[in-house]
Design goal:
686 residues; 5 domains; 5-stranded antiparallel β-sheet; 18 strands; 16% strand
């Protein structure tokens, strides 16, 4: 309708917050002279792209209007706007927009013989003749709107108006509703009726009766508009997760080589396991996942809450291959497993799969801000291995989304096929979960290790693709092979001695009977030359390393010849299976309650064997009943002492009934009725 503005020599422009005069235009360069007399040369593209660029005195140009703006309008409204555009273009130029070339303007709209005012008057008369109520002022107003807003300015305002989400509700009520929605983030999920009561109370306290609350239906619509996408009345877990989501742009975590980034986290496993003394409970699973290959570097089950030493032990299991760990071949013997042989993968196949599982030495470990991972023990172990630690922002699980998604995969691909599966929440839990057969923690760990090497590592993952074969997903083992070939190197993993080096350490002396730790005795023929001798250190004690989840053996550092001396527990033939440090402490506690000497190693070993046997069998019906009876006995009495003994009421004859009734009437005093309970008044009195 109007040509774009032109830039001539002598025009005044605004650039860089100052007013300039165009003194020359040469090629793609514009020479400017500021009001202070300072010359400058600016590229045209840079000048036109400046945020404050403006040609002083030029007529504003109508903005470009997309036809997509009219798609949401009724058809007749969009057609009316297009007809107005044809009329206005004819008023401005004398010709309609679609007039063929060479067409002469109509006499009443010829710019050569008619002024703009006359053309506007003629157009208003033409519209009135066509049945449209229009005056010259109407045509002028539509020309101004078309010049400022383009085609969108010609749309009927009744249809072009943007909907107001809050409607005509008082702004103070809207502010109170927003505050109430924000307050629901950390509270239990309620209803809109509860929120209405909260908003009414807040508005009455802050503004008094001058603010009128909307109707219930209007308030509910207001809440729906303000709480959209926030799960205010849905899952509390989802609501908190949405509230904690960072406001920045989401970006995918990308790793180009194995070990570039490893994410580690802990969560309860959705399986009931048999704990000490046959008690059922859920274990905690700690896993480390490599981002580049989706390899589960290590997975450890904790019967109790994870500690700092557990996180440090996790590092040792990540960087040291299983076949080079001490006594690894013994741990795979069929005779050492209590799982039926038919349920296990063949021993040769398992050895092959375990050896094929890649060992990844991480460069960076991403952790949350749990105390276990921020402890000095874990951070010192990472510094020793040269691993960088990257903590996530507080309450930001999306920053380690790969390991969070892996937890879900473990539950769906592994846990749901086990006896004792609980489901991810109470609404998905069966009615007889505890009565079903359950695995002890040690057997559950064995099954998990086997599933990782035989299932997860060989299963195609949709997130792993090779550039040459993008249509075929890769397994973690295949992705590792492809990325190692592209990187051209692999880090050398620590040895079995390094694994022992990373275990927790103690200082002990070597006596005639061996080494004693927490009333447990460890011995080995290799200790013979060092009995009753000092190590040569400042305290003459020997350095002893141990695995807190397998106390059947310890390792004593040979300070004279180097290396390690493996010492087995002297009572191992009685137990013949691994046990943890907390299991030993529990056995000593049980021994003390039975009147057995808790410092006698043999006596505690017998108690420990019984505990492990009961844990292996699981809790029976008699034990559950006994536990419930003990719990009921230990509960505090619900009645006051005067009412705990209830007299036996015998049948009375007529005389006894009369006598008893008279005595009861004499004993009854004045009855004071209870008042109506007001929770708000009671709260104010307190």
């Amino acid at each position: 309708m109007r040509a774009r503005p032109l830039l001539h020599v002598g025009d005044r422009v605004v650039f860089g917050g100052l007013e300039h005069t165009v003194v020359a235009v040469a090629g793609t360069t514009v020479r400017l002279l500021s009001a202070a007399g300072e010359p400058s040369a600016v590229l045209m593209s840079y000048l036109f792209a400046a945020p404050d660029f403006e040609v002083i005195g030029s007529v504003p140009v109508a903005p470009l209007t997309s036809q997509g703006l009219l798609e949401g309008l009724p058809k007749e409204v969009a057609e009316a706007a297009c007809r107005w555009e044809r009329h206005l273009v004819e008023v401005e130029t004398g010709l309609a927009p679609d007039a063929p070339a060479g067409t002469a303007p109509r006499p009443e709209y010829d710019p050569a013989s008619r002024s703009l005012a006359e053309r506007e008057t003629a157009k208003a008369a033409e519209l009135r003749a066509a049945g449209v109520r229009a005056e010259r002022r109407t045509v002028q107003r539509m020309r101004r709107r078309y010049r400022e807003e383009g085609l969108w300015g010609l749309v009927d305002r009744r249809y072009a108006a943007r909907p107001k989400p809050t409607g005509n509700v008082d702004s103070r009520v809207v502010a109170a509703t927003v505050a109430a929605i924000e307050a629901q983030t950390d509270t239990s999920t309620g209803t809109k009726a509860r929120m209405l009561r909260q908003v009414e109370r807040f508005v009455a306290e802050e503004h008094g009766p001058e603010v009128t609350m909307p109707s219930r239906a209007t308030f509910y619509r207001l809440v729906d508009a303000l709480s959209a996408g926030r799960h205010t009345f849905g899952s509390a877990l989802t609501r908190r997760s949405m509230a904690n989501r960072p406001s920045g742009v989401f970006s995918a975590t990308v790793a180009a080589r194995p070990g570039e980034q490893v994410q580690i986290d802990t969560t309860p496993l959705d399986v009931m396991a048999v704990m000490d003394d046959g008690v059922l409970g859920r274990t905690e699973l700690t896993i480390a996942v490599d981002i580049a290959t989706r390899t589960i570097c290590a997975a450890v089950l904790h019967p109790a809450g994870a500690k700092a030493v557990d996180a440090a032990l996790m590092l040792a299991r990540i960087v040291v291959p299983e076949p080079v760990r001490p006594d690894w071949d013994e741990s795979l013997r069929m005779s050492a497993s209590r799982i039926p042989h038919a349920r296990l993968v063949d021993i040769d196949t398992r050895l092959q799969l375990t050896a094929a599982k890649p060992v990844i030495v991480p460069d960076t470990i991403v952790i949350d801000r749990g105390r276990v991972y921020l402890s000095e023990t874990f951070l010192r172990a990472c510094r020793t291995l040269g691993i960088s630690v990257q903590p996530c922002h507080p309450r930001s699980p999306a920053e380690k989304g790969v390991v969070e998604r892996t937890f879900s995969s473990v539950n769906t691909l592994f846990c749901q096929h086990l006896a004792g599966y609980t489901g991810r929440d109470a609404t998905r839990r069966g009615s007889d979960v505890e009565s079903r057969a359950a695995w002890p923690v040690a057997d559950l760990q064995d099954l998990l290790d086997e599933w990782i090497v035989a299932g997860w590592q060989t299963r195609p993952h949709e997130g792993l693709r090779h550039p040459l074969t993008p249509g075929r997903p890769l397994s973690p083992n295949e992705a590792y092979a492809a990325m190692v070939a592209a990187a051209g190197y692999v880090p050398v993993t620590p040895t079995g001695e390094d694994y022992v080096e990373m275990l927790p350490a103690l200082r002990r002396r070597i006596n005639d009977y061996g080494v004693q730790i927490d009333y447990r005795t460890y011995n080995s023929p290799q200790l013979a030359p060092y009995r009753r001798r000092g190590s040569g250190a400042h305290d003459n004690a020997w350095e002893v390393h141990y695995d807190p989840y397998d106390l059947t053996r310890v390792w004593v550092r040979d300070h004279h010849k180097g290396g390690w001396i493996t010492c087995e527990w002297t009572q191992l033939p009685l137990i013949r299976q691994p046990f943890a440090d907390f299991t030993w402490r529990y056995a000593r506690k049980i021994a003390a309650t039975r009147g057995v000497d808790a410092t006698n190693e043999s006596s505690v070993a017998v108690v420990l064997a019984g505990i492990l046997k009961r844990a292996e069998d699981g809790p029976g019906p008699d034990r559950r009943a006994t536990a419930k009876a003990r719990a009921a006995t230990a509960m505090p009495r619900r009645l006051p002492p005067a009412l705990q003994s209830v007299p036996v009421i015998e049948e009375l004859d007529d005389e006894d009934e009369a006598t008893t009734g008279a005595s009861e009437e004499a004993a009854v005093g004045e009855v004071v009725p209870f008042g109506l309970f007001d929770p708000f008044a009671e709260g104010e009195d307190q």
